[in-house]
Amino acid sequence: MAKSRSIFVCNGCGAESPQYFGRCPVCGSWNTLIEQAPPVGEAGNSRVGVVAGRSRSPKERRNQKDQGPRLALTLAQIEDRPQPRSPSGYGELDRVLGGGIVPGSLVLVGGDPGIGKSTLLLQVANHLSAQIPVLYVCAEESGQQVKLRSQRLGIGREPADKGADPEASNPQHPGLYLLPEIDLETILMELEALHPPVAVIDSIQALYYNALTSAPGSVSQVRECTSALMQLAKREDITLFIVGHVTKEGAIAGPKVLEHLVDTVLYFEGDRFASHRLLRSVKNRFGATHELGVFEMVDRGLQEVSNPSELFLGNRDEAVPGIATIVACEGTRPLVVELQALVSPTSYSSPRRTATGIEYNRLLQILAVLEKRVGIPLSKLDAYVASSGGLNVGEPAADLGIAIAVAASFRDRTVDPYTALIGEVGLGGQVRPISQLDLRLKEAAKLGFKRAIVPKGQGGTDSVLEVVPVGRVMDAIALALGAAS
Ligand code: TYD
Ligand code: MG
User: Which of 93, 199, 207, 423 could form a disulfide with 455 if both were Cys (CB 3.0 to 4.6 A apart)?
Assistant: First the structure.
């Protein structure tokens, strides 16, 4: 039978075309056309076509009215089904998921290659498989390779030990089932047959739906495969963890639509050369976003780090000029982070500014405030600012720490390593209030800090720390640099 032809749909404006264009003929944006599967069956045969196309007699319509709406329900009519969350075995993952795994949810896990996505999900799958059957679809690796990894991780409970266990042939028997397969239809069939409460797809870019002509990993393949998996998962109440690769720009490959389809989007990130890994939620239908889970990659897989502040805190016995400590907040998790600054005379006509782990524009703004409001002449100086461990601290509460680290480097002075700096810096040179001050102070106290410089008028006076409120960044600098030098 001849294959019906695919259509090309613009990701930007939704325009359809029978052929591919590099530039959408309707909205003019480049590289937005994606191939889409031909519609299943003829339009006239579809359910929508039948219902919409049928002309009903006035009598029929009256009858329908009398019966009232049959498909739409009121909130009260919807069955109240409590959805207990199940622990994944990793508190850090549960925290990011909003308190555990929600049955029937779709979780997309993105991250650079080699960051540890497969390792994390294999560990989680292994933990869950003690209680329930878990299907791990290893589309990128052979069963042998996964087995090797599991041996390295020290896991390898034999799920269906044939012969020894009479339960083994029962598909409901708890255990970790591997499926090295890329064909979408086979995977869907296996999911339906085994009906595992939890399944892992590693990775969505490797799956192949043969009704499409495009190669695995192309946007249309990724989109079609995800929506087919989603429909099955919602219908059968299967929790799906889907691994997604990221592009060079850092977004999950495939159209943005992918992120709209799933319930939760997690990003696994971290410096490949450092051992810590951060799991972040950027979308969560069942919990707060911007939660952070911290893991460490060791030679036997990923380990949880329950006190991550210690990871980002340097050696406090040795004071070095240009170092300041801040308390950042990631979701509900406070993190003590060391910031380092270095300013030095420039050899260029316009000075260099480098920001690692902090926002570049934020740095420029703070340098301008230091120049104009504090009188530090930075226009002939290069400025380099970095957060320890390359942790991304994008929030304004880091401003005061950045300003003080730069000022300390300029004056070649040290900041007392037991002083935490918390506050946003306004363009007028004022120190502005930030969120979750009490939480931050509590974390600083836990790590042995003695003093905190905080925005004026924000409270925090019941803290065990010595809390010093300041109104202007100039005063904060005098206070922080004066005390230790
Ligand atoms: P992997 O889970 O394969 O990454 P991804 O699926 O995100 O591409 O992780 C591979 C990296 O982790 C690899 O560089 C080796 C390292 N690793 C360890 O350091 N210890 C271990 O126990 C394992 C299994 C991997
Ligand atoms: Mg992998």
Answer: 423
Indicate the class that CATH gives domain 91-157+172-306. Answer: alpha beta
Question: What pLDDT, on a 0 to 100 scale, did the predictor assign at position 351?
Answer: 94
Atom 15, ligand 1: which residue's CA is nearest?
114
What is the rounded radius of gyration, in angstroms, for the C-alpha atoms of the chain? Answer: 28
Averaged pLDDT for residues 413-421: 92
Nearest CA to ligand 1 atom 14: 114
Name residue 100's amino acid: G
Selected from 1.10.540.10, 3.40.50.2000, 3.30.530.20, 3.30.230.10, the CATH number assigned to the domain covering 310-482 reads: 3.30.230.10
Query: What spacing in Å lies between the alpha carbon of 225 and ligand 1's midpoint?
Result: 25
- For 457, the token pair is 């008028």
Task: Supply the residue whose CA is at minimum distance from atom 13 of ligand 1.
Answer: 114
User: HEC string of 11-37?
Assistant: CCCCCEECCCCCECCCCCCECCEEEEC
* Model confidence pLDDT, tens digit, residues 293-341: 889 988 888 999 888 777 777 677 777 899 999 999 887 788 889 999 9
- The residue whose CA has the least distance to atom 1 of ligand 1 is 116
Q: How far is the CA of 360 from the centre of ligand 1 (A)?
A: 31
Lowest average pLDDT, out of 160-174, 184-198, 278-292, goes to: 160-174
Which ligand lies nearest to the CA atom of residue 205 in the structure? 2
Distance in Å, CA 274 to ligand 1 centroid: 13
pLDDT of residue 310: 77
Q: What is the pLDDT of residues 27-54, one digit of tens each?
A: 787 887 877 766 554 443 434 434 444 5
